[in-house]
Amino acid sequence: MSEIIWKDRKRPIFGLPLSFTSYSLSDERLFVKRGFLNLTEDEIRLYRIRDLKLTKSIWQRIFGVGSIQVFSSDKSLGTFVIESVKNPDEVKERLSNLVEVQRESKHVTSREYMGDGDFDEDTDGQLN
Known about the structure:
alpha+beta; 2 helices; 18% helix
């Protein structure tokens, strides 16, 4: 298993980690754990991430947190949000760089078509 290079908890109240949702990142995967009694753990391979979007509400900016929306081709997670984490600009940049490294190492290409929003992805550069 790869070494964890970043981890944090969802910080919904005054930027404090008072949540049962945690996030961690290795050089190949992003992990999302939710729950206390009933635990759910999801993971996404970084090469499946298509795009990232950073948002910071006024309250998040005051408390030094932000949220990162992750657009992926993963079947179980799809589009999801890494909510209210510290240093969101740095986290988004690190995640973006790791995604590019993984996509290049796996020879994954993506093509977006203007207008219809369809997305095709494969490993040999050919459209599906």
